[in-house]
Amino acid sequence: MGGESARGKVMAVYHLKGGVGKTATAVNLAYLGAASGLRTLVCDLDPQSSATYYFRVRPRLKNAGKVYLKGRARVSNNIKGTDYDRLDLLPADWSHRHLASALGRVKRSRKRLQEIFAPFRGEYDLIVLDSPATATLLAESIFVAADLLLVPVVPSTLAARAYANLRAFIKRKGYDEDKVWAFFSMVEARKKMHRTTMAAMKEQFPRWLRATIPYAADIESMGLARAPLPAFQPAGTSTKRYRELWEELAALMLYRGE
Ligand SMILES: Nc1ncnc2c1ncn2[C@@H]1O[C@H](COP(=O)(O)OP(=O)(O)O)[C@@H](O)[C@H]1O
Ligand SMILES: [Mg+2]
User: Fold this and answer.
1) Which of 112, 129, 203, 224 is deepest in the core (most CB within 10 A)?
2) pLDDT tens for each residue of 199-211
3) pTM score, whole prediction
């Protein structure tokens, strides 16, 4: 990134809903960001710690609440390298299930994550938050901390409702709706219902990324490979789609007006 004032950007992959491809997206986009030359930190905020698993990191966090609430040194001490150049990970473990309630016990709790990540914007060009499916104080802290909130939306009827709920939640709480960008995830282009749902949702809500991610077996196989998809399928068709998604996001976050 050029320019003296260049500061790392925080992108959160978030949804109220689980199983929509958040972690797969966070892991693959972080990999692509690092591969494009950005110093990248993935921050796993989910007690299920799937991102941590994909990167083959064993966390030894004593207490996630303390790590996040006791300041910069604690966070730094817990950052681990990965097998990939320029790509670091702040892992999660089961203690992360207490993070929302730990946040609730501190002052200005909604701003806390933003404050925690502020100094790391100097060390990293890109910070990717992999969020749990939650609508707690942790979710609100993520809304505040993120420059861009990336929401994977599966084009099914129930998932469309969940996205409408999320938009209403963000609006009701007064968070900046302009930083919410969505893309269609796990798309089955042969399903007519997916096609009609996508068209209807594009009418209803703004800011859809053009790239879509298909429902694909190679993406599912990341769990066996325990690696980002572009690392083991660099020329695959699904990798191509993640690259398209990454290009759009990079243009939005990194190169706009600088
Ligand atoms: N595009 C996709 N196509 C097929 N399977 C996917 C895709 N994205 C994710 N998966 C699989 O679906 C499950 C949930 O994905 P995950 O990324 O963990 O979702 P979330 O983080 O939103 O809960 C995982 O088993 C994952 O391997
Ligand atoms: Mg996940």
Assistant:
1) 129
2) 999 999 999 999 9
3) 0.96
